[in-house]
Amino acid sequence: MEWLIAVVLAAFLGFLIYEEIGGPVAIKPPVLRKRLCDYQTGGSVWEDVDAALRRKVRLLEVHVYSDERDQPVVALTQQKEGQEFADPAVSFESVCVSIVNDAFPSTDPFILSIVPRTEKTIVMDRVAEHLLTTVRKHLVNVPSIHTMPIDDLANKLVIVSRRTGSRLDPLINLSWDEENLRRLTFAQAVHPRDDRELVAFNKNHISLVVPDASMKTVLETPDRPKALGCQWNLFDRSTVGFVESPLAASNSFLSQ
User: Fold this and answer.
1) Which of 194, 186, 193 is nearest to 230 (CA)?
2) Could you tell me which residues come within 8 angstroms of residue 73 by beta carbon, excluding any fewer than 6 positions away?
3) What domains appear along the chain, each with residue ranges and CATH number?
4) Entry pTM
5) Of 8, 143, 154, 160, which has the most beta carbons under 10 Å away?
6) How far apart are CA 112 and CA 103, in angstroms?
7) CA atoms within 13 A on the CB side of 48
8) Which among 70, 36, 238, 40 has a CA at the least distance from the CA of 150?
9) Strand 174-175, strand 181-185: pairing
10) Does the structure show a pLDDT above 60 at 83?
11) Alpha carbons 223 and 230: distance in angstroms, whole number
C-alpha cells in the first residue's frame, strides 16, 4: 500500500512541475536565413591576415603580385598604381594556410577577393594551385552564388576575382567582369551616377566597395554605401559576420 501512495505522490508532483513550467517545451524551428546578396559584411585589405582573422572578418581582399621567382605574394600595404612588385608582402600560400586554420569551421561563408596585380599567367596558375592544395574542401563548385541561401554556403570559401585566362578562372564564384558583381570605389558607392539604379541592382546582385586607386579615402557619409544596399565594404570595420541588409529587411516587411 505504501508503494502505491508513493507512486501517486510522485505523479502528483510531476503534474505540478508540468503546470509550473507551462506545459511541454516548444521546440523552435531553425531560422533559415536568406540569400547571400541579402547580407552585408565588413572586410579587410592591406592588413596582416592573422590580425584580420582574429577580428573575425569574413571578407578579405588580397592584392596579388609576382616575386622574383614568379611566386604569388600578397601586398601588406597599398602599392603605387602600376608598380610590379610588392614590398612588404607575404606569400599567397601563407594566406591560404591562415584562412584554412583560422576561418573555419564556421556557420558563415568566407569571402576571398583576389585582385591580380600581375599579367603573368603562371603566377595566377600558382594561386589556383595553392587554393586547391590548402582549402580545396571549402571551395564552392558553383560559378555564380549571389542568390544562393547563405546557409548553403556555411563553411565555404567564396572566390571573387576577375578572369585572367589562368587556372584560377574555374575556381571563381563571382567576377566583377560579369553582371552579378560590381566592384566600386568608395567614392563611386557614395556618389553613384544613379542612386535608384544602384539600389535596384543590389536587391539581387552584390556590390563590393573598395579603396580608390589614388589611395584617397572619402570620409563623408561613411554609411551611405550600406543605405544604398552595397553588401561588401572593405572600409567597414564595425560589421563582423553577416548582417541582414536594410534592403532585404524592407523587402521582407513589404512582402508580409
Assistant:
1) 186
2) 64, 65, 66, 67, 86, 89, 90, 91, 92
3) 36-255 (3.20.20.190)
4) 0.84
5) 160
6) 11
7) 4
8) 36
9) unpaired
10) yes
11) 10
